[in-house]
Amino acid sequence: METRPLISVVDDDESVRESLPDLLKEFGFAAQAFSSAEEFLMSKHLSETKCILLDVAMPGLSGPDLQRELARRRQEIPIVFITAHRDEKVRPRLIEQGAVECLFKPFSEADLLEALNAALRLS
Amino acid sequence: MRLKHAEEALRVRELNFQLIVESIPAPAAVITPTGEVEALNQSVLDYFGKSFEELTGWANSDPVHPDDLPHVIKVRQNALDRGETFEVESRHRRADGVYRWFNVRGFPLKNTDGRILRWCVLLTDIDDRKRAEAQLAGEKRLLEMVASSCALTDVLTALCKFVEDTSADCHCGVYLIDWSGPKFRIGAVPSLPATFNDPVDGLTVSPHVGPCGHAALSKKQVIATDLKTDPLWQESAIRPLALAHGIRSHWSTPIYARDGQVLGTFVIFHSEPASPTQVQQDLIAQVTHIASIAIERASSEAALKRSEAFLAQAQHLSRIGSFAWRVATNEITWSEQLYRIFEFDPHVTVTLELIGTRVHPEDLTLFHDMIERASSSSSDFQYEHRLLMPDHSIEYLHLIAHGTRNEDGELEYIGAVQDVTQWRSSEEALGKARAQLAHVTRVMSLGALTASIAHEVNQPLSGIITNASTCLRMLDADPPNVDGARETARRTIRDGHRASDVISRLRALFSRKDSATELVDLNEATREVIALSLSELQRNRVIVKPELADELPIVAGDRVQLQQVILNLLRNASDAMSSVDDRPRQLLIRTEHDADRGVRLSVQDAGVGFAPESINKLFDSFYTTKSNGMGIGLSVSRSIIENHQGRLWATSNDGPGATFSFSIPSVAEGVAVSAVVALTDQKPAARPS
């Protein structure tokens, strides 16, 4: 019944989990928020997810940890990293490891949309 | 008949002369005007042990000591030629071969018309007097040597020679005792060869040595009349040595110090078995007394020289000079070092005016004030002033003086002056270095913090922008989603506040540049540091567990510095766990009450820990176990804590990892309450925590 692509937001920051799904819905996507990588891995939404907006630094499993875990499970969901830690060295490394994009918080609506479109083209 | 009468008369006269000399109770002789011996009384014959015939040829034989003979002959001949009384002192050989001193007086016997008929010669034994005189002169010479600070060896050598001259046919020696051994040291044994002396030098003082050892230990004179036969000395170490050198008797007398300690022994050796006469005992008593004076004087002089040298050296090393100042006469005595400090020629006479020329112009008033005050009262004083040296350099001096009154009631100061220039400059350098270190750590923390700050600020900004975008989109929709827009706008405001909080925290952390003491709630300070470093810790997958005690007493201190310490401990703990993958990277930060109303904060990690042997080095500057660290953090942290009258230490955990803790005293309760009120009043606004 749900035809809109599901975007999952995985971030330990509450304000991100509150705000980002609303914007994604305004864009016309379906959105789900998860406070940790572990929660997302256990979720039934995992298989439906067309793209993950994934925080890099989180307690427990980090964003890259989740990326590796999904690769190990051969679940190739496009990932767009979002991080408040502006480290230019991190971005190319994450993209090299298969991420679609790495956005530095705060990012603009246009950048987010562009990254999502790129991700969805892949899936 | 006439001839017979004349012969008779002559015989009577001869008899008369013989009768006259025989009647004299001392040795006496009658000689003719030409000098031939005519009559000698029995005591002369007895003394010399020779016949009348033997003695008539005295001038060509040995009754008179050969050294005295020419003089005696000359004096006698002069008197005979002139017909005047003569008197001479000379040594005469007794029957046993001993020379004794005699006063020899000859006077003419004249007839009524003044013609000299005969000479009468009287011999008076003056040996005791001569000996006493010689002994006195010898002792006087020895004492003069002692008084004029001759070397001890020279004095003791002269002393031995004196005894050898006075008491015939003996060898003398002085053996000193070094009680730290105790060992014998040769003081002087001038007339015996090295083959006899060398083996004795350094011998341990014991009864086994021989009479010397006995005398030294028993503090009594020991007379070994015959080393060869006396069974007492059969086993003694000295015996074979002595016998090999032809020594048979050995008299050893202790030389006492004034306090009764034995300084050494005085020894007389004879080549024949012998025991001392009373005269010899008197001589021994006299010379051991002189030896004692000489030895004590030498050792006290050596001690004095040593202590003078020590003092000069100590003054030089510590840059302390000493002085004495007699106020009434303005007499000033300076130590060598003080001349050096002031760079004055050691030969100049020091006056207050001269000192004044070196005093820094800005300190002259202080200097004069000090002199005035010191002159008017006798209390101790100390002050610091500067010198302006000829090369325009500045020296800092610290002066301490003690006032006393001498026997005449005059005021006198004895004092010490220390050159503290180096301390001053090194203190300044140290302060500078410490400030630089503190700055370095601050900058290093800043670098690490910048990332955290950016993260903390970016997080709410991201929320704001996302919410604002959503809000616009909701309002642009047809129909506009006003409720949704209102909700997102509200979230925008909340995130804005959140960003503002972060900024406030940063301002609190960095606004104060210099050390400032204020009342600090350690829990609050800790929470701020955790909040600022949380993202960094999370990135390192560190799980922070704060356990902050309730009602923690307030401490007084520099909030920023204390937070630097906490931050440093957190980062160290995080770094220590960076290679840990087999267990949770758990970091426990705890505040609690400490003994004596103190406050303790500890940071416990589950990291690699440290080797027990390195515990003392952990706090050294530049000691680090990290490949990229400078190792300054812990040492600066410790100095910060110590500046807060606290201490910082490290312990190994029972399990993995280490715990770093510090404790600092809290402020007294009353003070805390009022000060906290004051502090809270100062704060512009309470912020949500």
Number of helices of chain A: 5
Oligomeric state, counting identical vs distinct chains: heterodimer
Low-confidence stretches of chain A: none
Q: Looking across the biggest beta sheet of chain B, what order are the strands in?
A: 2-1-5-4-3
The general outline of chain A is: globular
Q: Which structural class matches the secondary elements of chain A?
A: alpha/beta
Output the radius of gyration of chain B. Answer: 52 Å
The spatial strand order of the largest sheet of chain A comes to 2-1-3-4-5
User: How far do the termini of chain B sit from each other?
Assistant: 169 Å
Contiguous low-pLDDT stretches of chain B (5 residues minimum) are 621-632, 670-689
Biggest chain pair interface: A-B, 27 and 30 residues
Sum up the overall morphology of chain B in one term: elongated
Largest sheet, strands/sense/barrel of chain A: 5 strands, parallel
Residue-averaged pLDDT of chain B = 83
What is the number of E strands of chain A? 5
Task: Give the topology string of chain A: H per helix, E per strand.
Answer: EHEHEHEHEH
Major beta-sheet overview of chain B: 5 strands, antiparallel
Number-wise, the strands of chain B total 22
Strand content of chain A: 15-25%
Query: Portion of residues in helices of chain A?
Result: 40-55%
Helix content of chain B: 40-55%
